[in-house]
Design a protein that fits this description.
Length: 300
């Protein structure tokens, strides 16, 4: 009996330690090599993040993306240090994404950050990347959604270095102190400042989209990535506040981005929105010019 109890306890603690037994290398170290996270993370063919080479993207034109409730003020927002990132949950309403190339409605499950960015554009890395993780509403929960190709949509927002503080990011990092310590891992705290997510969003007119994976174990290849082409500002001071959070061994987490993955035979589509609007504008400008020239000729 005692043996069985010990065995069960040992097995459980093994399972627990395995669950947290993944992490990021300190890229500042000389001997950096990216750890193996197992299974799909090591042998998948549609993995994320990737470098986006804008010269090799394919042009796409989709209906506009529709964001429902992203302008709602969030009063009950919660924040947690899960040992790998800072994550936001507890949304007042369902934040719904539809349109674009999506065939179903997707609802936001959680929002988190990577410092420095996971995706690079033309080999340039950004100081911060926000991931808005959505679940396809035809699946009842995230774990089931991750088993299907159309299960998850992640919107990636890149932040560029700027001397100007990002007001919306300040609302988040202003509360980081209470979750920084490793002893507070998985402890949810309230984000004191009311905010709407559109405050963190750039224009959604232009974006890159491709089929990829979660960038953390189990690296499920269930993700339609939508990476906004427009970036938003953040200061290094603000990013450094994220870098102070501690992970499981009590060390700070100076970075939490996964190594770039091979593109393999995937296409990256560059979607340019509002082309018809731009064309209309160009057309009407040309018409105005013709009218002006004609009237001038008439006057002469
Ligand atoms: Zn992420």
């Amino acid at each position: 009996m005692h043996f069985i109890t010990s065995f069960v306890l040992a097995f459980c603690s093994l399972a627990l330690s395995r669950a947290d037994d993944w992490g990021y290398p300190d890229w500042d170290s000389d001997t950096v090599s990216f750890p193996k996270w197992g299974e799909l993370c090591d042998n998948g063919q549609r993995q994320s993040p990737i470098n986006i080479d804008s010269k090799k993207t394919l042009k796409g034109f989709f209906d506009p993306l529709v964001f429902e409730n992203f302008d709602d003020l969030q009063n009950e927002l919660q924040m947690v240090n899960n040992g790998h990132t800072v994550q936001l949950t507890g949304f007042d309403d369902d934040l719904v994404l539809r349109g674009g190339g999506l065939l179903n409605d997707y609802v936001v499950e959680q929002i988190h950050f990577h410092w420095w960015s996971e995706h690079t554009i033309n080999n340039i890395r950004y100081p911060l990347e926000m991931h808005i993780v959505h679940r396809n509403t035809i699946y009842p929960n995230t774990s089931m959604a991750t088993q299907f190709k159309d299960g998850i949509v992640v919107i990636g927002v890149l932040f560029h270095a700027s001397p100007i503080r990002n007001g919306a990011i300040d609302k988040i990092v202003g509360n980081l102190d209470s979750i920084t310590s490793a002893s507070n891992i998985n402890k949810f705290v309230s984000v004191g400042n009311v905010m709407a997510f559109e405050e963190l969003m750039p224009s959604a007119d232009n974006y890159f989209t491709y089929a990829g994976s979660l960038t953390t174990p189990n690296c499920a290849e269930a993700v339609t990535w939508i990476l906004m082409a427009e970036t938003v500002p953040v200061t290094f001071d603000q990013v450094n506040m994220f870098r102070q959070i501690e992970h499981h061994n009590g060390k700070t987490l100076p970075n939490n981005y996964r190594a770039l993955q091979e593109l393999n035979d995937r296409a990256v589509v560059f979607v340019e929105g509002d082309i018809s609007g731009a064309a209309r504008l160009t057309g009407s400008l040309a018409l105005t010019l013709i009218v002006l020239l004609a009237s001038q000729k008439f006057l002469l």
